[in-house]
Automatic annotation (TrEMBL):
It comes from Nocardiopsis endophytica. This is EAL domain-containing protein. Residues 24-285 form the EAL domain.
Length: 289
């Protein structure tokens, strides 16, 4: 009987796996169609200089504007966040054309803002698959050339995963990008086991402190000490430090008192459509903090 039960459980498990695989394939097919139908859109989240409260850059964050059937059978529009589709885009390789679209779209938008005398920078996130794809360095160079955006105002964000899969090749590609004049940032710094080692392998211009540190600032002594250490490390290395996920005024105050240069988070501004950014801080208005 035990065996029967076990077998039954195995069947349920297999059916579950099957459903999951089918679900993933369906999602990948929908993503491909969505790219052709131009259903992707970008939101931008302001990054501020914590001392002056001036917006120094925006981070481009991809969203999928998807039409779905609601409960009552009517069409409803949903804005999907990356966590719902980036994994599938990476698995299917679709992240390569999607990432290229993100890069072109964001560079063009920020070039327009800069043409209107607004001195603003741009950060774009990269996945491993993108960096290791053939012609990636050319893709970045093309996006810069077409938009007229100067290389030095573009920051490419990578997380540690990028340096784990094929470190030699990834470092090679990222160094080539840096030679183009583009800035490099390590995203989610402090979360990986080898954050410090990677600073040796790769020359970066910016470190983004993971939100999990910012969340427990002040409340957890160890976390506060670690955050302060990362801020000092950045200062000693001459690397810009950006704290991510600032939601409460106490966190902002703590970061300021530590001398953390830049910050980003819901307290400062949420990610928003380009028009929202223009309305809020377009032309260089600061954010009262
Ligand atoms: P990330 O690069 O670390 O981006 C920051 C994420 O934190 C964004 O989530 C942003 O909305 C969120 N966030 C900002 N401030 C706060 C805050 O105060 N509190 C909280 N709870 N969250 C905050 P989002 O837009 O959902 O993006 C998630 C991740 O998806 C990004 O993490 C990035 O790794 C990836 N991603 C986004 N856009 C792209 C893209 O165009 N290409 C690639 N390859 N990955 C992307
Ligand atoms: Mg990022
Ligand atoms: Mg990231
Ligand atoms: Mg991050």
């Amino acid at each position: 009987r035990a065996k029967e039960q076990g077998g039954g459980r195995l069947e349920v498990y297999a059916a579950d796996m099957h459903a999951q695989v089918v679900g993933r394939l369906e999602l990948q097919a929908r993503l491909r169609q969505a790219l052709a139908d131009r259903e992707f859109t970008l939101e931008y989240q302001p990054v501020v200089d914590l001392e002056s409260s001036q917006v120094t850059a925006v981070e481009a964050l991809v969203r999928w504007r998807r039409t779905e059937e609601g409960d009552d059978g009517e069409a409803v529009e949903r804005l999907l966040l990356p966590e719902e589709f980036i994994g599938a885009a990476e698995e299917s390789g679709l992240i390569v054309p999607l990432g290229e679209w993100v890069l072109r779209e964001a560079c063009a938008k920020v070039a327009l803002w800069r043409a209107a005398e607004w001195d603003i920078g741009l950060s774009v996130n990269l996945s491993v698959r993108q960096i290791l794809s053939s012609r990636f360095v050319e893709t970045v160079a093309d996006a810069l050339e077409e938009s007229g955006l100067p290389a030095r105002v573009l920051t490419l964000e990578v997380d540690e995963e990028v340096l784990l899969e094929d470190p030699g090749e990834a470092v090679e590609r990222l160094s080539a990008l840096r030679r183009l004049g583009v800035r490099l940032a390590i995203d989610d710094f402090g979360m990986g086991y080898a954050s410090l080692a990677h600073l040796r392998e790769l020359r970066v211009d910016e470190i983004k402190i993971d939100p999990s540190f910012v969340r427990d600032l002040g409340a957890d002594g160890t976390v506060t000490l670690l955050t302060h250490t990362i801020v000092r490390l950045g200062q000693d290395l001459g690397v810009q430090v950006v704290a991510e996920g600032i939601e409460r005024p106490e966190q902002l105050e703590k970061l300021r008192s530590m001398g953390c240069g830049h910050g980003q988070g819901f307290l400062v501004a949420r990610p928003m459509a380009a028009e929202g950014v223009e309305a809020l801080v377009g032309g260089g208005a600061g954010i009262p903090l």
